[in-house]
Structures are given as structure tokens and as C-alpha cells.
TrEMBL record:
Gene: Amt
Chief location bin: membrane
Annotated TM spans: 34-52, 73-94, 114-136, 148-168, 188-207, 219-239, 259-278, 290-308, 314-331, 343-361, 381-410
A matching Pfam family: Ammonium_transp
GO biological process: ammonium homeostasis
Name of the featured protein: Ammonium transporter
Membrane protein topology class: Multi-pass membrane protein
Coiled-coil spans in chain: none
Organism taxonomic ancestry: Eukaryota, Metazoa, Ecdysozoa, Arthropoda, Hexapoda
Length: 568
């Protein structure tokens, strides 16, 4: 069906095999190719989220936040296949305007004529679901128990899938009222942002977060944060233009328009956040103002990405960016510690993106995305604006309330907040046994020593970036070098005619020649090619070495010394 779009899941249904397929999923070959390609690109947004979030948190928690992003795909994706897809798009007899029921454990058999279309549609919706889930991880960073987060990620699918069905499912009450959301400002970003707000508020701020004011904390890796922005920017193009759900008929024209309007919105947002940051910081540029300003504009343009003119996209992106950079410090003053600003970027800008459709939307002829309606500023009246406002209210309320309830239940099973000493040591060490260097870890361990915190689980963890086996080998080589020096000194004393046997006995000990930096020990560790000659008992020495020739007369003594190692 050429006039189908991703905004409504409208269209005629078709019975095939054991499945009842919405008309939207009746994709042509070229449409299926477009949907699959877009899905692959959207999955790269997980890389962007991971880089952005790891760049915003302290170094001792950067691996932990990446692991949460992996868990979001693994567990969130698994539960989406188990029940999430069926809760959004199932068409069983028990489906109702609140929740869909049916098509669980999706697996069309070989020979089903619609197998390819079903899998393509599922993969595309899966990419959206995992994106909505991973938005929350940044808001919970640096103080959330990893095991509790795994359980949260496993169950959080329901938080996204039920409202996604309201807007995009044939059964959904918002869909039947005429709500419009092409690529997910509401079901994906607003739900994710509202859930992020609730989780950050329920966890409480990080230790010492507001002890010295409300200014943002230093970033762990600003370069990673910027690289994350670029990857998300790239993925957003597929996120929005792929939501035409194909390129057949007139859909390819609106796919192109969606991509351009997405970029136009980000231009407006980036420009506005830059001006704001220069003004706020007396000519300086705050990194997070710019990054989150661009992301906020992208969220804002998503709901109506191919319904706007270029200047409208600029305005919508600019307003979204401004709302974002104003909301971030506001949330901090409310005591909601969101390390990455997800509540502002996805929550506040998601609300604006949904409402903006009711103001600026065109009627995208011949597609039926808006059911023939237009926004208030296009002469379409107040109906679409009212429905969009109702959608924003319903989605925000659901995201906050359901997340509070879910975390409350999880907290009864597994405490969602890390222990204070684990938070001080960092989740990388306490949860994943990854020890960073030069991040104040030794200082934290010393501070915890008087209160007798059990640190057995982290005892002996080696710092990252080194090979312990190589370090032990280097220690053995150094020990061998010391022994060579000692034997050289001993032989020089024995062979010196001025040192009498009487003096050696009187001294009772052998004095060894100390190492002198100005005179290195021959060529034992020289990088120059060494030619070696065989001496008695199979020992070698490098030519031109200052080391003495140690032969059969002392080989037995050396063989008995467990601390001595010969170096070839």
C-alpha cells in the first residue's frame, strides 16, 4: 500500500497462515529493503548512546554504562520478542484500546508468503524499542545497582510497548482519535525521557553531587561525548526517513524530505544552543549545552519530520534546543540528578515535538499520515493540536507512573541503589572487576579502611592496560640483571690481586659493586643485534659485552640459585 506510513498502522488487514497482518506490513520488495537498511542503521544509535553516556560519567563508571547499553539490547530485545511486539501490534481477539494481545513469540514458518515482511517489520520496531529502553540508562548512571538494572531492562519493555500501541497500533485509542507521530517523539523519546526523570528522581542524586552547588560535574571523556553525538546524528537520519516505511509510490519523496528536515531542525537547534551557551558562559562554549541542544532539536523534529517546511523545521529545532538547555539546570535545582540530561533532551523536547505537529503539520498528499488534517497554523483548526496535547499528557503520565511502580517493585527484590562504598570505588571495579589507574582509587580505599568495608571481592584486581604475565616476566629479567651485576662484582674482587684471602675472610662478607647509571651492563638489554658465542657448559655471552665469561667453574652454583635466570 503506497500511502501507508509509520504514524498510524492504519490500513486494511490481511489474513495469512496463522497471522493477521496489518496493511502497513504488506511491504513490497523495495519497501522491505528500505525498512531493513534503516533498521540496521538505527541499531548503530546504541553505539552513539554508549559513547555519549560513557563520556558524560566519571572514568570509574564508563565501562558500567556501556554494559548497560549492551544489556538493553540483549534483555530488552529478548523481551520485545517474547511479549513486547504483541503488546504493541498484536491482533488477537482480546486486544482492546489500551493494550494489544496476540502475535507473541513471533516466528513465521518457512513457506509463509509474508515471512520476509513480518521479520522486516519486527526488526524495525525492535530497533525503536531498544532505543527507548537505553535512554533511561544514562539518567541512572553512577549509582544504580547493575543487577537491579538488568531486571529493570528485562521488564522495561512493557513501559514502552503499551503506549507505542496507543499511538501506532490499530487498536490504540490515541490512534483512533487521530494522533500523529511519524518517528516517535512521543512513544520513543517522551516515554524514555519520562522514565529517565522518574528513575533519576527515585534513585536520588550521586554522592556529593550538590554539595558545592548546581554546576555540572566534569565530563569523564568529552571527546567520547562528542563522538556519540555524531553517531546519533547519523542514526537519526534512518530513524526519521526510514519511518516512511518504504520508498514505493510517493513514499520515497517524503523519505527524502524527512532526512532534509531532520538536518534543518538540528541546524536550528545547534545554532540556538551555541548562542545560549556563549551568552550564559561569557563567551565560552559548554560542551553539554551544544550536544544536548542538537539532540533536543532532533527529538523535537521527529514526530512530524516530513510534515514541515524548511523554515518551520528550523524554528521547531531552535525552540526544542532552547527548552532543553533551560530544563537541564532546572532539573538540577529540583534535585533530579540526570548525568546525561536525558530528562530534558528526550522528555521536555519530546513533549514539544508531539505538540509541534498540531501547530505546523501539512497534509502530506497522497499519504494518509494526518488523516487529511493540518496544524493550527496551516488553517487546520484546533482538533489536531488538542489530540497532540492529549497524547503528550497521556504518554508523559504513563512513563513517569509506570517507571515509579516498576522500580518500586524491583527495589523490593534487589536494592536499586549501590552501596555508598561501591559508589565511591566506582561500578567498573565493584561490578565488573575493572580497575582504572590514576582516578583516586587508592585514596578511596584508604578512606574506607577505618570503617572495615569488605573489599575481598576487589583484592588483587590488576589495573587495565597492562599484561600481568608480561609484568612478571619483566620483574624476572630485572632480577636476573641484578644477579649478573652481583656476580660481576664478586668475580672482580676474586680476580683482583690486591684483595687478599685474609681480607676476604676478615670482612666475612662479599661486597658487591653497585650499579652505576653512567655505565650500563654491557649489551644484555641492548636493542642492537647481538652476536653470541658459545662458552663452556652451554652458556652464552654477547660479543663486546663487559660481563665476565662465566664458565664451568660457577655454573653449578648458578643452577642451584632459584632466583637466577639466564638471558639469551
Amino acid at each position: 500500500m503506497d500511502n501507508a506510513t509509520a504514524s498510524g498502522l492504519k490500513g486494511i488487514g490481511r489474513n495469512h497462515s496463522n497471522y493477521v497482518i496489518p496493511g502497513l506490513y504488506d511491504l513490497s520488495t523495495e519497501d522491505t529493503n528500505w525498512v531493513l537498511t534503516s533498521s540496521f542503521i538505527i541499531f548503530t544509535m546504541q553505539t552513539g548512546f554508549g559513547m555519549l553516556e560513557s563520556g558524560c560519567v566519571s572514568i570509574k563508571n564508563e565501562v558500567n554504562i556501556m554494559m548497560k547499553n549492551v544489556i538493553d539490547i540483549v534483555l530488552g530485545g529478548f523481551t520485545y520478542w517474547l511479549f513486547g511486539y504483541g503488546m504493541s501490534f498484536g491482533r488477537g481477539p482480546l486486544s482492546n484500546p489500551f493494550i494489544a494481545i496476540g502475535d507473541f513469540l513471533l516466528d513465521p514458518p518457512v513457506g509463509d508468503a509474508l515471512m520476509g515482511q513480518i521479520f522486516a517489520a519486527f526488526l524495525f520496531q525492535l530497533s525503536f524499542a531498544t532505543t527507548a529502553t537505553t535512554i533511561v540508562s544514562g539518567a541512572m548512571a553512577e549509582r544504580c545497582n547493575f543487577k537491579a538494572y538488568c531486571l529493570f531492562s528485562f521488564l522495561n519493555t512493557a513501559v514502552y510497548c503499551i503506549p507505542a500501541g496507543w499511538v501506532w497500533g490499530e487498536h490504540g485509542f490515541l490512534n483512533k482519535l487521530g494522533a500523529v507521530d511519524i518517528a516517535g517523539s512521543g512513544p520513543v523519546h517522551l516515554i524514555g525521557g519520562a522514565s529517565a526523570f522518574a528513575s533519576a528522581a527515585m534513585l536520588g542524586p550521586r554522592l556529593g553531587r550538590y554539595s558545592e552547588g548546581y554546576d555540572p560535574l566534569p565530563l569523564g571523556n568529552p571527546v567520547n561525548a562528542c563522538m556519540g553525538l555524531f553517531v546519533l546524528w547519523w542514526g537519526w537520519l534512518a530513524f526519521n526517513s526510514g519511518s516512511t516505511y518504504g520508498v514505493s509510490g510517493a513514499k520515497w519523496q517524503y523519505a527524502a524530505r524527512a532526512a532534509v528536515m531532520t538536518m534543518m531542525g538540528s541546524f536550528g537547534g545547534g545554532f540556538t544552543s551555541s548562542i545560549f551557551s556563549f551568552w550564559r558562559h561569557d563567551g565560552g562554549m559548554d560542551i553539554m549545552d551544544l550536544i544536548n541542544g542538537v539532540l533536543g532539536s532532533l527529538v523535537s523534529i521527529t514526530a512530524g519530520c516530513f510534515l514541515y517546511r524548511a523554515w518551520e523545521a528550523l524554528v521547531i529545532g531552535a525552540i526544542g534546543s532552547l527548552l532543553c538547555v533551560l530544563a537541564m539546570p532546572l532539573f538540577d535545582r529540583l534535585g533530579v540528578d540526570d548525568p546525561v540530561g536525558a530528562s530534558a533532551v528526550h522528555g521536555v523536547c519530546g513533549i514539544w515535538g508531539v505538540i509541534a505537529v498540531g501547530l505546523f503539520a501539512d497534509n502530506p498528499i497522497p499519504l494518509d499520515t494526518t488523516n487529511g488534517r493540518m496544524g493550527l497554523f496551516k488553517g487546520g483548526g484546533w482538533y489536531l493540536l488538542g489530540i497532540q496535547t492529549l497524547s503528550a499528557l497521556c504518554l508523559a503520565s504513563w512513563g513517569i507512573c509506570s517507571t515509579f511502580l516498576l522500580l518500586y517493585v524491583i527495589n523490593k527484590i534487589i536494592p536499586i541503589r549501590m552501596d555508598p562504598h561501591e559508589e565511591l570505588l566506582g561500578a567498573d571495579l565493584t561490578e565488573h572487576r575493572i580497575r582504572h589507574s590514576q582516578i583516586g582509587l587508592s585514596r578511596a580505599i584508604s578512606a574506607l579502611a577505618p570503617i572495615q568495608v569488605d573489599l575481598k571481592n576487589i583484592a588483587g584486581v590488576q589495573p587495565i592496560g597492562i599484561n600481568p604475565g608480561h609484568e612478571r616476566s619483566i620483574d624476572q629479567l630485572r632480577a636476573a640483571e641484578d644477579k649478573l651485576y652481583q656476580w660481576q662484582s664478586y668475580l672482580e674482587q676474586v680476580s683482583n690481586p690486591r684483595i687478599t684471602r685474609h681480607k676476604l675472610v676478615a670482612d666475612s662478607d662479599i661486597t658487591f659493586k653497585p650499579k652505576t647509571p653512567s655505565k650500563p651492563p654491557g649489551n644484555v638489554f641492548s636493542r642492537r643485534p647481538l652476536t653470541r658465542e658459545l662458552i663452556s657448559d652451554g652458556f652464552y655471552r654477547p660479543n663486546n659485552s663487559e660481563l665476565p665469561v662465566i664458565g664451568a667453574t660457577i655454573s653449578n652454583k648458578l643452577d642451584k640459585d632459584p632466583n637466577f635466570a639466564w638471558v639469551d
